[in-house]
Structures are given as C-alpha cells and as structure tokens.
What does this fold into?
Amino acid sequence: MSDASGPTPGETLPGQQGAEPGPEAATSTSRPGTTEPAATEPAATDASDTGAEAGHGAEPRGKRTEQGEATYLVAIAEALWEEMERDERVFMLGEDIGVYGGAFKVTEGFIDRFGSQRVMDTPIAEDTIVGMAIGAAMEGFRPVAEFQYADFMSSGFDEITTTLGRYHYRTGVPLPVVLRGPSGGGVRASNFHSTNPEPWFAQAPGLKVICPAFPSDAKGLLKSAIRDDNPCVFLEHKWIYRRIKEKVSEDPDFTVPIGKAAVKREGTDLTIVTYGAMVHRALEAADDLGRDGVSAEVVDLRTVYPLDEETVLESVAKTGRALVLYESLRFLGIGAEVAAVIGEKAFEHLDAPIVRLAPPDTPVPFSPTLEDAFLPQVQDIVKAAARLSAW
Amino acid sequence: MADVTTGQREQGVPGEVSDASGEVPAEGEQHTEGMPEGMPEEQTAEEQSGTTLDQARAQIDRLRLSWDHLKRLLYLLSLTRHVDERLETLYRQGKLPGAFYSGRGQEGTHVGAAYALMPEDSLFPTHRDLNAQLAKGLDLKRVMAQFWGRIDGYTRGRDGNSHVGDWQGHRTFTAISHLPIAYPVAAGAALAYKMRKEARVALAICGDGATSNGRWHESINVSAIHTLPVVWMVNNNLFAYSTPNQLEFPVPTIAERAGAYGIPGVRVDAASVLDVYQATRVAVERARRGEGPTLIECVSLRWRGHAGHDPAKYVPKELLEEYMEFKDPVKRFRELLLALKVVSEKELGGLDERIAKEFDQAYAFAQASPAPSPADVAKGLWAGDGYWENEPRREGGPGGVGT
It folds into this structure.
C-alpha cells in the first residue's frame, strides 16, 4: 500500500484510460436487474466483473461478499438505494448515472428500479445540475446530485457556494441537497481527476463536508446526509472505492451522525488526526510504529465540517503529541485548521510541537514518482511520528 | 366609475388568452422587429405613441381583461414607479444604506410578467426586478424594512436592498447578484412541478447581460430537453452595466436564440405592459399545458445607471430622451386608460395620493422596525438551529404577511 498505490490490476478509471471521450470499458457483463441487451455493452474489463470485489448498486446486498462484507462503493450504493426506497422525495441527477450507471458504477441498476425520472441523466452542465437540485429542493424534493469526479465541482462552484450554502441564512428556506463526488489521489488519475476539494467547501458557509474512510461510515453518513435538511458535500475517496471492505449494517435505519469523529485505533504516545484515504495510511503506519514500541492513536474526522473538536482535543490531551495528516493542500488545508484548534485549545497538553504532513501546494501530478512524492506515504508518517516521539 | 383598486390582486388570471393553436399572437413582436443592436428603429409618431385605441380595445377584449384588471395593472405600474423614485431620492439624500438598483423604465416588463402568474407559480428575479416582486405580491412594508436592514425585512437583515424574496409566501426567489444564477434554480423548480404533475410554472428573469453567461444557455437547453414548465424572460434594457447590446451578442436579437434550443422565442416592446402580459400569458399557458419553455425578450431601456452611484453617461442622451418620451410604460398605460375612459384624471390623482401614502406608511414601518440583534449574527445558518423556525410573528412582519 505504501509504495504501490497504483491501480489494482484490471481497474479502469473512468475517463482515464482508452480514448477519451469514447465509452469507457468499465461495464459489467452481468448486471442483474438491467434490461438493456447485453450486445450493446462494450467489452468488460473492469475489476468489478472479475473478482469478489464486484459490487455496484443493482442489488446492493447481493453484491456483498459471501461473508456479508461490503466495499465502500457497495456501501454507498446501498445507502442511496435504501434512501430512495424509503423516501420518494429523494431522487438523483447527474451525468451518465442512468443507463450507464455512473462513471464509477455506483448507481448501476438504479434506473431499472426507480425509473429515469428519479435517476435523471443530465447534460454536462455542472452549475445547472446543482442549480436544478436547489430548485427541486425548494419545492420539497431531496435531490442527490452526482459529480463524475469531485474535481468537476469547480464547474458547479458558483451555485454550490453562492446559492446553496448561503440560502438558508438569508431566507430560512432549507435546502436538503446532497452533492456526491469521487475525490482524492493515489490512483494515477492525474491533475483533473485527483483533487481534494474539501477545503473549498469547508470555507464556504452553510455546507456540511463529509469525507468517510470506511464502508460503514460511508453508508451511515450518506444516509444521514440525505436525511439532513442542510446541504451536504459528500466526498467519496476513489482510492477506497474497491480496496476497502468490511461488515456493514443491513439495518435500513443505520446511520452515522454527521460532525462526529471516531477513534479508529487507540494509542497512548501520539495522536494522528486524519480523514479519507489517509486514515488507511495512518493505520498502516501505526502498525509499523507499534512494532517499534510507539503507540499511536488514529482519529478519523469522518466529517471535516463541522469539525468535531471535542474528539480531537480529547485524544491530544491523552497523548500529548499531535500529527495532523491530510491530503488536501498544506496551506489552509483541513489539517491547518485542525492544527490551529489544537494549538489554541490544547496547548497545555502538548509535549511537542504539532506536526503537519500534507502534500505540497501544487496540482496533483501524474507520473508515479511524482504522485508518490506528492502524497504522504506510510514511511513519511512513520518518520514524522518518530520525530514527534523524540520530544 | 369604480374606484381604482389598490387591493390584493384577484386570484387567478382572466380566461384563456391564446387561441386553440397556442400560437403566440403577433402584437408583441411587431413593434421592435428589425431593431438590431437594441437601438430603436425609425418609427412614425403614431407608432411611437403606441397602438391605436381600437387595437388596444381589441387586445384587451382578447385578453379578457376587466376594468378591475386594468386598474390593478395601473396601480402596480404607478406603485412601482413611485417606489423607485422615492428610493432613489432617499439614496441620494444619504438616507438609504447600501445599494439601490433602479428598475425604472422597465415596469412594463416586470408588471406584465408577474401579473401573468398565478400565486402558486414561482418567480426567479434578479436585483433589478423589485418591481416584479412587488407585482407578485410582496409586502411593501417588509420590502422597506429589508432596505434598511431591519428585522421585519424578508431576510431579517441578512441581506439588503432588492436582494429580497419571499419563497414561503409569494413564491419568489431571494435574488442573488451573480447572474443568471437563478436560471438553473428555476429549471429545478420546474422539474419539481413536472415530476409531481402539478400545473405550476416557474418564471425566471435576467438581463441582457446575463445571456452571455453559460448558465443561461445550460438552463434553456435542459428545460427544452425535458419539456419543463418554465418561462425564460430576458429584460433587455440595452445595457449590461455600461456594455451595449452589440458588444454582448453577435445576433440581432436575443429572442432568436430560442431557435437553437427548439423552443419559441418572442420579442416584445416592453413599453406596452399589455404586450408583455400577453406574451407571458401565452408562454405560461403553454408551459402549464406541458408543452415546455418559451423565451421572451422584453425590450426597454434602463433609465438609470446600473446602481445608484452610476450616472450612466454611456447611454446616448437622445436614446434616453426617446425612451422617456415615447416608450415610458407607465405614462403610456395611464394615457391609454384615460383615453379608454377607464379612469379619469381625478381618479389618477387620487391613486397617486394613495400610493404616496402607502409608501410613507411603509417607510415609517421600516424605520420603526428593530435592527437585528448582534447576538444573532451566527444563527440561522443551519436548518433546524431554531433561528428561522422560531421567527416571532409580528404585525406586518414575518408570519404576518398580507395587507
């Protein structure tokens, strides 16, 4: 994990391989619940066809492993499916989410169950997708808009930050809108398909920003977001989609509260505060550190705005050392705020200066040597932790 | 002769305006046809003074507008003109905090459009369109409290001037500066009506300047693809801030751009409130029947600068004089109703007095309304935090809507 973070064998990133903008070869050959003729499908090369990690929305539970485990992607599809079943006000709109099933196949099969009105394919017009979600929410719907990549949220930025986030403060009109998008790097997707846009939206008033790291949290938080009367930006880290799986609740009312961090590993010597894919790096680093006799606690923020200061401060008060690890840019990234909060409110507990570990303030580069240098690696975390422990 | 009504507008709109074919009547188009770059064409004095009385009578009959309807339109035109003039005066006296965006000269567009909507239809205006919001029914007292940042303003002091709206009451979107940011939102509201099979319509207004923005095209495109019940109105007042039409779009009219999206496009001389009303009625009825969107370009001139600080020296003097003399929608309609003997000079005088009094009362209400509490600055950001939910109900204030 630490050295390779490349695509898993057979993984095809939508829009990244093969000729753009031609049909991406990522379509399942066995799609229960779909009615379109198989002959129209392009050749299948996606990992989801070939192994136990196969999974998408069509019959979410059926797509779990035999042991009942769900990938992050399946867990997200389950959340969407269950909320669509539960509440007829919930509908989805976005690019290629209908017949095609979405760029990452999260919504595959949904159109057959819920129809093209509730699984609405839109033109490629992100600002208008967000605007339409807002208008429908004003009229009582609970729209869930999908972005093919979170990078393209910049094309919808104006409606997100100007209309969506600010409207309730100005008017008292609730806008229960969820914006979903695959974020993050580590999959060789280059500049425009690897962004971590969470600081943009965490700085825009009126938006909740959610960045889960585990399938259960993804499912429970997405269900909470859909039920929330406030706008939520739900960032699905694409590195996690098919790599991480676990047992996930099948209770249709299972939710995870927005704005609550979770301690994913307990420790006594230092706290690693992080979120998203970096949680998995941190856990791996904590294993390495444990072998060296350093006990690291890992706090997964899960929601970056509103920030759960309490859980962070509690952990730092216990360990006395804080390593803030984040994948958004170093300058004014999420970890900058976390570090500020710790410095402001837990100074008396600190035995060492706060250490931040984050990418440089550049775009996400493509070449594996560059991207690996850009993203914090396990060995970087281990080194930073060792520095902290030396105090 | 009955008094000129200043009461609440009647629920509903007079009978169907369009013939069975749903064709857009031609009256709305003919005055401004062949008017490139938004400059008025050569017109005879008779044309400039408006349609002949017989034509006007025929149009009123066809629209099935009663005298009460005509008087209501008269009231709305006179009210919006008066409010605009008084606010401008207060701004210049330094008594009005913040900005002021005059809609003067464009009342024909605003009143004609809003009057064609039912109460349950939604309106998505810009900061230029306070006139339309007043015509849709917003309470002048609360609008004035909005201008002074008071608690009884529609946004409770969180926003100012014509960045106003009343979604919960009169179904108007609270205007935002970025344009045409409400166009996609209107498409979303229309999508909701279509999904619920409701016979409701969304109407969005923007200026000629906003037609240069991608969202304008995106919204019309998606509304045409999905046959959404929406009316796209462009208040072409010939200038985007200081930039004239010929530097905004390379085709003769905005209306003809509708063809690119496969929907009807209509160009209306907005000096005639009846022409605007008629074109909007046809478009609204078409949308209500499930036949999709229409683009309406209403041509007028912005008599004042972009905002109160702007003397608009970039507008040719002759053009302004011509519009003020021959294309004043308020003056023209008042003269029409006098000529048709719907009202007398004396009644017009009485109407103006009542409107001035109405403004005075609203101004006094605004001055008496408390300022929002500084302690509440961070409240109301989130739905469910109690700030808006526990809004106190005040006489003429939030929750006490309706005069």
Remarks:
- Chain A has two domains: 38-247, 262-389.
- The two ends of chain A are 29 Å apart (CA to CA).
